[in-house]
C-alpha cells in the first residue's frame, strides 16, 4: 500500500490527536512524526518549528467556524435577523467546542494563550464579518448610519459573555439562553434606534 | 499607651497588608495576629476560620466601590446620563484598583476565585443598582418599558469588558475609552428604542 502523501492538513490532524493524548505540556514534534509513521524531518519540512506547528493547529481550530459564520454574514435578507443568527451561530459553535470535548478545549485554551497574534487575527476576521452585516443594514436603512467598524467592535465586546472562552463555565448555566436573548435584543434595538 | 481595640476592620486591614507582603498562598492567621500584636485566638474570636477571614477581606475589597456607585445610581436627573455615569464610575474604579496596585489586584484575583458566593452577591448588588436606574428611566418614559431586572443583567453582561477583571489587561489599551463609549452608546440607544 502506498502511504497517503504527507499534507499540512494530515500533520495538523495528527498534531491535534497528539495534543489530546499527551496534553499541551508534553506533546512533541517527534510524537507527531511517530503518529504519522514519518521522520520528524518530514514534519519540519512543512512546519519549521514546534512553535510554528502549534500556531498552525491553533489557527486551524479557530478557523473551524469561520466558513459557516461567513455564509451567515453574507446571506440575503434583512440585516437585523442576520445579525442575530450570526451571533447565535457563533455562540452555538463555541458551546459545542467547549461542551463536546472539554479536555481538547482546555488544551486549546493553553495554545490560545501562547498564540495571541493568531487570536487577534481571528478576532479581526470575526469583527470584519460583523462589520459587513452592519454595513448592509445601514445601506438598507434598517440600522442608523454610524461607523460600521466601530459598531462591529462594540457588538463583539458587548457579546463577549457568549463567545469569550473565559466564560465557558457560564455556557451551561440554566439562564444563559435568556441572557443571550436579552443582550441581543438590546443591541438590535440600539442599532435600529 | 492603651492599644487600639481589636475591631473587625482593623483585622481586615492587617489581613490585606499580610496578603500584600506574603502573597495569598503563604499568608496565615498567625501572620495577621503577629502584625496586630495579638494572639491568633483574638483573631479567631472575630473570624472563625482562615477561610472566613479570607472571605471577609474579599467582600470588603469588592464593597469598596459600592457606596460611591450607589450614590450615582440613586442621584436625581435623567436616567440615560445617570446610567452612563454609573458605568463610567464602575470602569474607573476597576481600572484604579487594577492599575494602582497590580500586585494586590492579582492577590485579590486569587481570593475572588476562592469565594465565588461572595462574588455572586457582589454582582447581584451591582445589577440591583443598574435595575434601579432602568426602573427610574422606564417610570420617566425615557426608556422603553421592559423587564428592568433582565435589562439590568443584559447591561451588566454587555459591559463586562469594562468591569470583569478577566479583561484587566485591556484596560490600558489605547482604544479602550472609545470602545467603552461605543458600547455605552449602543446600549443607551437600545434602552431608548
Automatic annotation (TrEMBL), chains A, B:
Any one Pfam family match given in the protein's UniProt record, by short name: TetR_C_27
Transmembrane segments: none
Keywords: DNA-binding, Transcription, Transcription regulation
Residue ranges of every copy of the HTH tetR-type domain listed in the record: 5-65
DNA-binding feature ranges: 28-47
Cell membrane recorded as keyword: no
InterPro entries: DNA-bd_HTH_TetR-type_CS, Homeodomain-like_sf, HTH-type_TetR-like_transc_reg, HTH_TetR, Tet_transcr_reg_TetR-rel_C_sf, TetR_C_27
Regions annotated as coiled coil: none
Record-given protein name: TetR/AcrR family transcriptional regulator
The species this protein was found in: Streptomyces aureoversilis
Amino acid at each position: 500500500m502506498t502511504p497517503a502523501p504527507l499534507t499540512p492538513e494530515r500533520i495538523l490532524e495528527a498534531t491535534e490527536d497528539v495534543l489530546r493524548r499527551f496534553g499541551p505540556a508534553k506533546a512533541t514534534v517527534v510524537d507527531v512524526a511517530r503518529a504519522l509513521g514519518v521522520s520528524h524531518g518530514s514534519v519540519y519540512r512543512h512546519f519549521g518549528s514546534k512553535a510554528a506547528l502549534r500556531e498552525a493547529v491553533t489557527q486551524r481550530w479557530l478557523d473551524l467556524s469561520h466558513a459557516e459564520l461567513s455564509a451567515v454574514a453574507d446571506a440575503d435578507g434583512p440585516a437585523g435577523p442576520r445579525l442575530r443568527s450570526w451571533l447565535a451561530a457563533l455562540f452555538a459553535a463555541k458551546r459545542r467546542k467547549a461542551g463536546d470535548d472539554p479536555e481538547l478545549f482546555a488544551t486549546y485554551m493553553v495554545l490560545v494563550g501562547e498564540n495571541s497574534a493568531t487570536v487577534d487575527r481571528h478576532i479581526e476576521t470575526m469583527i470584519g464579518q460583523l462589520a459587513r452585516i452592519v454595513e448592509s443594514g445601514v445601506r438598507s436603512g434598517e440600522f442608523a448610519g454610524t461607523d460600521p467598524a466601530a459598531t462591529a467592535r462594540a457588538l463583539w465586546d458587548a457579546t463577549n459573555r457568549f463567545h469569550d472562552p473565559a466564560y465557558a463555565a457560564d455556557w451551561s448555566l440554566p439562564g444563559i439562553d435568556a441572557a443571550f436573548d436579552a443582550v441581543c435584543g438590546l443591541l438590535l434595538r440600539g442599532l435600529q434606534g
